Amino acid sequence: MCLFCKIANKEISSNIELENEDFIAFHDINPIAPIHLLVIPKVHVENFQKASPKLMAKATSFIQELTIKMGLDSDGYRLLTNNGENGGQEVMHLHFHIVGGTRLKWVHLSDNNPKAAI
Ligand code: 5GP
Ligand code: ZN
Questions:
Q1: Which of 20, 25, 39, 47 has the most C-beta neighbours closer than 10 Å?
Q2: Radius of gyration in angstroms for the set of CA atoms belonging to the chain, rounded to a whole number
Q3: 25: CA distance to ligand 1 center in Å?
């Protein structure tokens, strides 16, 4: 069983902020901003590329509820998912990062020339 399946099953403890029958939101162990939450489905899905539209529709509602609960909805936040090797995904269980609580920078993501043809 993968790390985030264990967190979803409460075999590994986490600081849970919101939960419903399909998803769980908990604080990232290594936050990159004052608020850094992870949203995961309780079922094991490898990443966004493997997610169904039905699951994503439910994720949308859950994330919107979470951001309202956290008071992020009016000031804004960043929602991102790292997908696969080039995306920098480290835990192979679909998760969305919700980052906020401060004014975020738009960072330089690659050492390669962004204008170079792929
Ligand atoms: P990725 O790089 O796969 O998009 O993000 C994985 C995230 O999971 C990282 O931000 C990392 O800090 C977080 N993380 C890894 N292990 C744990 C853990 O055991 N507990 C919590 N709460 N977060 C974790
Ligand atoms: Zn899993």
A1: 25
A2: 15
A3: 12
3 φ, ψ (degrees, to nearest 5) = -55, -45
pLDDT tens digits, one per residue of 25-49: 999 999 999 999 999 999 999 999 9
Question: What is the rounded distance in angstroms from the CA atom of residue 35 to the CA atom of residue 42?
Answer: 22
- CB–CB of 62/39 below 8 Å? yes
- pTM tops 0.85, yes or no: yes
- Tell me if 107 CB under 6 Å of ligand 1: no
Kindly state the helix (H) or strand (E) to which residue 27 belongs, with its residue range: strand 23-27
Instruction: Write out the E strands in 3-112.
Output: 16-19, 23-27, 35-41, 77-80, 96-100
Distance in angstroms (rounded) separating the CA atoms of residues 102 and 20: 27
**Is the distance from the beta carbon of residue 90 to the nearest atom of ligand 1 less than 6 Å?**
yes
pLDDT at 93 over 70: yes
May I ask the CATH class of domain 3-103?
Answer: alpha beta
Rounded to the nearest angstrom, the distance between the alpha carbon of 27 and the centre of ligand 2 is: 17
